[in-house]
Amino acid sequence: MEKILIDGGKPLVGEIETSGMKNAALPIIFGCVLVKGRCVIENLPEIDDVEVSFQILEDMGATIERIDRTTYAIDCTKVRGGSSSVQLVRKLRASYYLLGAEIGRYGKAYVGSPGGCDFGCRPIDQHIKGFEALGCTVRMDGNYVEAVAHKGLQGTNIFFDLVSVGATLNVMLAAVCAPGVTVIENAAREPHIVDLANFLNTCGGHISGAGTDTIKIKGVTELHGCTYAIIPDMIEAGTYMIAAAATGGHLKVTNVIPKHLESITSKLCEMGVTVTEGDDFVEVAMEGKKLTRTNVKTLPYPGFPTDMQPQMAVLMCLAEGISNMHESVFDNRFRYTEELARMGALIKVSGKMARIEGVKSLRPARVRAVDLRAGAAMVIAGLATEGTTEIDNIQLIERGYDDLVGKLTKCGADIRKEQVG
Ligand code: UD1
To answer: Average pLDDT for residues 296-312, to the nearest whole number?
Structure first.
């Protein structure tokens, strides 16, 4: 077990290169199960969730070859459906993409129930609704989900009751090789939905409309191997943008698609941060300026991402006046506020709302990462606070941030990892 130690209070200055997007990489890695052939995937982030996904696939018979730090060749030709390890699957939320991928390839799936960050109840009823509409009978007990299309899959119309990233991706995986036409309505519009569609289309799929709320899938008989590069991680980029603002720094965040960051950029500008956009970078400048209060409501894309909520809350703690954070996507995503309170943050949570009263500065403390993005928020708080902040439970942060300590160190942060105890 390791912890992170930060001697904060130093502005972040320099350049950070964004890695590939975790939440695009995972469905694409599991999407390789649909392909008989070799897929070369580029711009993969070096994070624990990718490593666990590889372990799950290798365990099922896939061949995975490392080409360089961010490029891997994945060949699932010999994968055995229904053979994933329940222990490994429980380590990830994204392992539920195996359901869609196995259904798409074999017309049936048998996968352990997914794990992932604890934001309260995280049902998968919309995924199941989609699989059932495609012709599957789905059974769930506490440990496993089983789906079988006894009469084969058949394209159909699916209207989701709510906007779900996971359900949209999963049904795309299940339907890409289903005979006929599938139309998903009330689909999520996140950039990673477009990325999965582009990957599947590069493999010979026929998907249109990804990025809008209606996605049309013409089933193809099979998919072939390809070479595909994952898009940059907007949540990683946004995390560093907020870290720059919180430390009064000046940071160029490169390898981004600025359009994906618009909801974050516009909030930062509203709070008094200067953000300049280039073709594939954003530059955040905060030297000598004061942060002003704001209100944020998390929403599906293109709204403000729930995965940036804890990081933004730290910035609100450092802004003058009272800010309000409304979490509208998940039921229980404020557990980290108790950790920030140890650092002197003044946050009152009531249901899905947090009222955040700005303080002049936070104070160093020993805190823990309660989930992945909450852990990133603790890092930002530590970077912005004079004295030594200790963060425990950092394996949750390492699930999703590629070389966090190395990237921050290059920009002047005094941050290191140490063994606990
Ligand atoms: C994904 C991301 C997560 C991000 C979230 C929202 C991955 C591995 N995880 O999670 O980082 O925070 O999108 O951008 O990519 N819901 C249902 N029934 C369902 C599915 C979802 O009620 O069948 C609810 C959820 O409980 C939640 C909301 O819908 O309240 C949105 O969830 P969803 O978009 O599905 O998030 P995930 O795919 O789990």
So the answer is: 98
What is the greatest pairwise CA distance in the chain?
Answer: 66
Q: Output the residue whose Cα is nearest ligand 1's atom 33.
A: 164
CA 264 to ligand 1 center in whole angstroms: 19
Residues of CATH 3.65.10.10 domain(s) within the chain?
A: 2-19+232-419, 22-227
Quote the CA–CA distance of 148 and 135 in Å, as a whole number. Answer: 8
Q: Is the CB of residue 167 less than 8 Å from the CB of residue 187?
A: no
- How close is the Cα of 329 to the center of ligand 1, in Å? 8
Nearest to 27 by CA among 121, 140, 168: 168
pLDDT tens by residue, 159-183:
999 999 999 999 999 999 999 999 9
pTM of the model as a whole? 0.97
Q: Tell me: the pLDDT tens digits for 124-137?
A: 999 999 999 999 99
Q: Which residues contact 170 (CB under 8 A, 6 or more apart)?
A: 27, 96, 97, 99, 100, 127, 130, 131
Decide which of 3.90.180.10, 3.30.1330.60, 3.65.10.10, 3.40.800.20 is the CATH code for 2-19+232-419: 3.65.10.10
- Sheet of 322-326, strand order: 295-297, 322-326, 353-357, 346-350
Give yes or no for residue 252 having a pLDDT over 80. Answer: yes
Amino acid 238 reads G
Q: For ligand 1, say whether the CB of 169 is within 6 Å of any of its atoms.
A: no
Residue 180 Rama label (left phi>0; alpha psi -120 to 50; beta): left
Cis ω on the peptide bond leading into residue 302 (within 30° of 0)? yes
What is the number of the ligand 1 atom nearest to the C-alpha of 235? 11
